[in-house]
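Slide 14.
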Amino acid sequence: MTALKRKNHYLSYSNEDLKKLLAGCRENSRVHERQFFDWLKEFAANVCYRYASSRIEVQDLVCDGFVKVFKNLHLYNEDIYGCSEAAFKGWFKKVLINNCINYRNKFHPKLLYSDENTLLVAEVEDESESALDIISYNEILSTVMELPPGYRMVFNLFAIDGYTHEEIGGILGISEGTSKSNLFKARHWLRKALQKKTIIKKYV
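Slide 15: predicted structure.
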């Protein structure tokens, strides 16, 4: 296998090397499984972090996610999905997200979602400097992590991972309207929180 290239802090595989890596993992090669884990562990941690409630939970979700991926790797068909990094990571990400949701349903079954009929009145945006102009990406992510669990789940699925409200409703067992309501409230909550952090950062 050719040497790996580093790209944006992640290991990068050519299409041909990725095929060889997946083939080795399907044959239960410990060497290839270790290379696979080293390649995607940071990517997996970043995905799971957004759905976890603690660092220990992140570790559990990452480990469990890799176990499920290795067990179901035969379901990834390169002829159908393609064998590029982007294509495989898209499939891998869906496995991780499904695992995170199943984990929350098992260990946090009483996760609450706001009623779809309860909507907030949209406020006029502050014309002062946008929070996004001052707050860093890590600060934005940490603010997302502070969202109430139900809001955070819907926000992650819709705004970050690209699921539709219909898909979210099916995944979480809620109505499409409830999904929309929770997203609206999550965005409202985030806007207020980011504005508050912006004020603190500007004047403290």
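Speaker note: The radius of gyration is 20 Å.
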